[in-house]
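Subgroup meeting minutes
Present: P.N., E.W., G.H.
Scribe: E.W.

1. P.N. recapped why we're keeping a running log of single-chain structure predictions: easier to compare across weeks, and new members can see raw inputs and outputs side by side.
2. G.H. added today's entry (133 aa).
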Amino acid sequence: MIVNLNGIVKSGLQKAGMFMQKETYMKQYMKKLGFMPYNGTLNVKLENDVEINIQEKYNEKLKIIKGDENLGDVYFLEATISTNDKKNSETGAILFPTKTVHKIDTLEFVAKDKLREKMNLKDDSKVIISIQD
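Output recorded in log:
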């Protein structure tokens, strides 16, 4: 079964790229994610005040990118993101940093390309994140 989460693209604090470039994480991306992600995340706020603790619900499917003494671990879940009209879609992962400023209703999605450009997304664009349940 596939679970679809509807959301809206939102601007972030522009800090994810800085953390994603850390050598501790960079050494693990290809092996664990299966791709080198674009240097930043796409923030997606879930619609309709949905708050789902994906980390708890999908705990057995989460994989981990290990941090170090200064950087926290980052858990991730493989997923697909598509435009609301389903004309564009990309595979990637939802990241769950152990140190984050986001509330439970905001997901951080990564892919190998800059999704705002590749999928022509702007703030308030509607997207669907699909997770294999």
